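Researcher: Next sequence.
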Amino acid sequence: MTPQSTKSTYWQGVGAGAPFILVIVPFALLFGVVASEAGLDIVQTFAFSVLVVAGAAQFTAVQLLSEHAPTIIVVITALAVNLRMAMYSASLTPHLGQAPLGTRALVAYCMVDQAYASSILAFEKHPDWTTRQKVAFYFGAVTPLMPLWLLFTLVGSLVGGRIPPEFALDFAVPITFLAMIAPMLRTAAHVVAALVSIAVALMLAFVPYSMGLLVAGLAGMMAGAQTEWVMTRKERAP
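Model: Next structure:
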């Protein structure tokens, strides 16, 4: 592999991650505003994004803190929301597991939904890529995302509630996850897992502190696993 091929793969990653800028910017702005309204100062808000680097978990934690939820509930819920990162890591291990320890640590720190979604699709499409090429693609996908996430978190905290509600920044949250999830619903198991988790989340919307989301996530994973098992048995049947 030549340096040029790694460079090319990096720029492919940049191109794959760039479209998510359209939702990362309002997403980060919204978090900064929400954190500010919840009582966090600029330093706390910025440190939150630098240390956690997980928008969904950050929103969940701030919301629960604003509702004066017990600290243990905040921690458990935020960790549960971030359990998807463990699944991301497991699916990336066959592709990036041979990278040096320091590189893998940096990949783990930069593990964001959009970069993962872009990368896993590219890795499956290009099984001939080397580990270095895959690492280059991953960091390319991260490049247009993380700096803007941190920058606009800071901007959102600074401007606070001065952003007009007509801007409807809250659209960024569902749009972000729809843009990531839709291309990945490629099998019956994926679709069933998504539908079951949505249904359970809606049914348990009344549960305090958004705890229904934890149940919905578990239900979705169980339904997806069961569907995968049934489909595998059908394929193996004579």
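Model: The chain has a mean pLDDT of 82. Residues 3-169 form one domain.
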